[in-house]
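FIELD: query
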Amino acid sequence: MAAKTYCDIDVYEAAKARLRLVFRHFERVCVAFSGGKDSSVLLHLALEVARELNRGPVDALFIDLEGQYQATIAHVADMFDRTDIRPWWMCLPLNLRNASSLQEPYWCAWDPAREADWIRPMPTHPAVIRDPSVFPFYRFRMEFEEFVTGFDAWLACDVPTAFLVGIRADESLNRYLAVRPSARGKRSAWTPPDRAAPIAWSSRHVAEANAVSFFPIYDWKFADLWRYTHEKQHAYNHLYDDMHRSGLGFSQMRICQPFGDDQRKGLDLFHRIEPQTWFRVVQRVSGANYAARYSRQRFLGYRGGTGLPAAFDSWQAYAAFLLDSMPEGQRTVYARRIGRFTQWWAKHGYPLNAWPDAGTPALENRRAQPSWRRVALSLLKQDMARSLSFGFARQDMEGWVMPGKDDR
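FIELD: result
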């Protein structure tokens, strides 16, 4: 792993220098705004530099996922009332992962067929967009990631546009790898016309030449965010105050879609922070109460997992039992992915007949060794094989019919 390089400049001045570079080369600048601490700081910094350079409004995209805290929505409304922001507040039916239920592994935010059960009423802010016909690329129940890609290309279709994203290398290894110069020279990075070297904290969009993503606060730490917010007396999401009072550690303070594979472990916060919202969540999203109660437990594969149940003599037999117990749609997805998993390892020196039933824990944790225990724990977690190194694929959704899809 490449070593970190330290400079004789603080992260605040470094971020502003990066933003000046962005504003100098792009006619439009749009901040991906979630209402969280990172994107809030990034939006404030962008506004600060825009004023300094006498630039017009800064665009900001907020994708409202319905199942969010009222404190987050209040902060978004507060920011979007500003005249120096050109707001895009999306309230469209989008497909989202629901790791709380095997029967309903995806749910649809702002589903028109479920309006009576919406967790919150549709916002009335002037920036809200709820008409799908506004965007020619939109498709009913399209994935969140697909919408973001489509919106970026749409917004940048006639004007070179920079998209600012508030990811920080300090948060996770994956985010660190996203911004560091790689051994391949980071081929996706953007190179300014007046420079020879690419910008490591950037990523060009494959489908749209006018669109480039930038990560100007990638080297900020948690304390830097709050020091800047306090010293500048900027508006922030007061949900963080509630999280702190609830005893959450700094690394757990995330604001995101609450029903995902990792995020479901924080569902129990709704009980303590917004009990009135929790009642609506349980009615709206299948399995939410189950996830809030049990998603951190050992018997679901977390906290080091569970031992092999006495009724089974091998992890392979236990994995087969778990797979057979799943609804048909889920079983199809997992069977396909486990097949791909075995094929990949066969090509990398681990044919199926050489798999250990339970491998070496240190190697399993580093995903450096296949085993039937790894497969079984992935099935227990119901994580769509994410712990086997799979991400989302549209093919995942072929195994079942989702409510409201066939009549569109």
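FIELD: remark
The mean pLDDT is 83.
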